[in-house]
Amino acid sequence: MKTNHNIKLGVSLYSYQDNYYFHKHNLEGCIAAAAGAGAEGIEVFPDAMIPEWPYISDAFVDKWNGWMERYDLESVCLDHFSDRRMWKNKNLSDDEMFERGTWYIKAAAKLGCKTLRVLHEEHIGVGFLKRDYKLTDVTITERLLPVAAEYNVMLALECHSPTSVDDPVHEPYLEMAERLGLPFVGLQVDFSSYEYCMTSADVGMVSRQGGHAEILNFVRDKQREAYFAGEKFVYEDIEVEVNKMGPNELDIEGIRHAMLFQRGHSIEKLKEYAPQIVYVHGKFYDLDENGQVDNIDYPVVLKALQDGGYQGYICSEFEGNRRMNDAGWVDEIEYVRKHQKLMRECLGYV
Predict the structure, then answer these.
(1) What's the CA gap between 269 and 250, in Å, rounded?
(2) CB 318 within 8 A of CB 332
(3) What backbone phi and psi angles, to 5 degrees, belong to 121?
(4) Which of the residues 61, 158, 185, 282 has the least number of beta carbons within 10 Å of its own beta carbon?
(5) Which helix (H) or strand (E) holds 264?
(6) Which band of pLDDT confidence, cut at 50, 70 and 90, is reported for residue 343?
(7) How far apart are CA 334 and CA 97, in angstroms?
(8) Burial class (CB within 10 angstroms; exposed 0-12, middle 13-18, buried 19+) of 64
(9) Angle 246-248-254 (CA atoms, 0-180°, nearest 5)?
């Protein structure tokens, strides 16, 4: 469904991962579902959904282009998972990472994607996860930039909670591109940066594992109260009450996880950085009875992007499936359809 809007809406095929994995939909079926939701574009999930990956034959390209034509869609972005640990017994070297990055860029160009989502070293900030290896870092990205320029593919640095687009850790990439005169790297927003409370999907998951829904919902309600009152949520203000409720280790871990990720990043900064944003993940986990995302203020976030002058794609990225599928089948198709409808309403397209 092609439009002339400055902000276009697409779907990441990541959203349909269970439908694909359990053979409810093949690749074309997932693409058709995105089109049926009203999307204009597709984010490609190559590692999971292209059988030939990392090789892409001309026959597959012909088939892909036929699907784009049949369903009136555009190839928007290809996912680059920085899989240095793809082998169990070793880490890939920087040279091997550069080689794989080059494969991703060429694949993106071959499928008509103008953007490559890069899971780079600082995508969730610095020091958040303890690991003995690095993802694609600024040194590897500098080697990849001439390749990206040759194939006219923009490298989109995913900025995922607990960090955000205004975190200084992303600046060395932008400064490097400016120094080289190769403007083929930019920032990618992930809406996880603007979560203001726990999602009900996490409450359900933790409680099914043995946590207490009443405790988690108490914290979630207090987070929501603070947000809609325009106040900062401070967990220490309710910690005594929570402890009186008798939380177990699962409850404490669920709350700790929420405190790490719900940082309340500035909407004004999102608006300010909009001109440097090249791509957006419309993250969501669950929808409430009114069709609103239950832990991200979509009307406010989308207005900031509009007011800041963002021009590009926002692709639905549904992650509730991984949190809710232990309770039964999650209808990814319907969730994405409702999410696309919500975004169109927030942007004033309906």
Answers:
(1) 34
(2) yes
(3) -55, -35
(4) 61
(5) none
(6) very high
(7) 37
(8) buried
(9) 115
Rounded distance between C-alpha atoms, residue 345 and residue 63, angstroms: 33
Characterize 299-315 residue by residue with b for buried, 16 or more Cβ atoms within 10 angstroms of its Cβ, and e for exposed: eebbbbbbebebebbbb
Phi, psi of 127 (to 5 degrees): 80, 10
pLDDT, tens only, 115-164: 999 999 999 887 666 777 889 999 999 999 999 999 999 999 999 999 99
Q: Kindly report whether the global pTM for this prediction surpasses the value 0.70.
A: yes
Domains, the chain, ranges and CATH? 7-196+263-347 (3.20.20.150), 200-258 (no CATH)
Question: Residue length, the chain?
Answer: 350
Q: What is the pLDDT of residues 252-293, one digit of tens each?
A: 999 998 887 776 788 999 999 999 999 999 999 999 999 999
Q: To which residue do tokens 């500098």 refer?
A: 142
pLDDT at residue number 39? 98
**Residue type, position 76, single letter:** V
Half-sphere exposure in the Cβ direction for 249 (13 Å, CA): 0
In order of 1, 178, 269, the CA distances from 275 in angstroms are: 25, 15, 11
The percent of residues above 70 in pLDDT, for the chain, comes to 98
What are the two backbone dihedrals, phi and then psi, of residue 158, each rounded to the nearest 5 degrees?
Answer: -65, 125
Residue 42 contacts residue 33 (beta carbons within 8 Å): no
Nearest Cα to Cα of residue 136 among 113, 156, 106, 110: 156
Is 101:92 a contact under the CB 8 Å cutoff? Answer: no
Letter string b/e over residues 320-345, b meaning 16 or more CB atoms within 10 A of that residue's CB? bbebbeeeeebebbebbbbbbbbbee
**Rounded CA separation 162/192 (Å):** 8
Phi, psi angles (nearest 5°) of residue 338: -65, -35
More confident residue, 264 or 331: 331
Q: CA-CA distance, 207 to 248, in Å (whole number)? A: 11
Is residue 210 scored above 90 in pLDDT? yes
